[in-house]
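tl;dr need the bound structure. longer version: we got a ligand (uracil) that a collaborator sent over and nobodys looked at where it sits. i said id run it. heres the input, straight from their email, havent touched it
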Amino acid sequence: MERLDKIISACGAASRREVKTLVKQGRVRVDGVLAAAADMKVEENTAVITLDGVALQYSKFCYVLLHKPAGVLSATEDRHQKTVLDLLPEVYRKRGLAPVGRLDKDTEGLLLLTDDGELTHRLLSPKYHVDKVYYARVEGTPDEADRAAFAAGIPLSDFTCLPAELTLLGRGECLVTVREGKFHQVKRMLGERGKPVTYLKRLSMGPLHLEESLSTGQWRLLEKQEVLALQKACGLACMTKE
Ligand code: URA
């Protein structure tokens, strides 16, 4: 059994404080009956909770896909600068959502935020081979020699990168696929090859892809199947048909 306000805020529908008001206004029902109090205990796995007649989906963890814009920090809070959490409703900060890895301030693209610690750990670990694909604009033209160097593993001053894939797109453009996520890694790899990055965008992380309809700065919750696919990609679940 779990408190009603906790369940509703976990669904991202309202903060716990707001639930109190919603209950007083008679807008929340549990199994068809008007909720008596925000702190009433409810069977979280079976109860049908509705807000204004719409059923809420409860899940233990929350997964948000954000199209990160440039100029925003991949952090949960910062005294002076805007963070990715500032782009989401307050309920998500209160829930403890955090970015899965970091994109540089000037990097755009797919950023997953969640409160699922185990999934976060696995998605970032090179051990589980979750590919991250980046589109890069660079100075110069990446060529076959660069492609071979990426495949062999680029040596940087402090470590040697794992083998990575470089897809040539012609003058000043390429795709980079990496399994690790060290600080400034893609920029450093291309910089090392004399192709400094002028623009970087993450397109995908494992089975998750940034769809064109999600504009810069927009976000959405992951579908259940997307969560399952992510879990499967890092050895946490078997895919089920629904
Ligand atoms: N590699 C980088 O250099 N920057 C990013 O933001 C992500 C990967």
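gonna send this back to them w/ a short note. The chain has three domains: 2-55, 63-125+207-239, 131-205.
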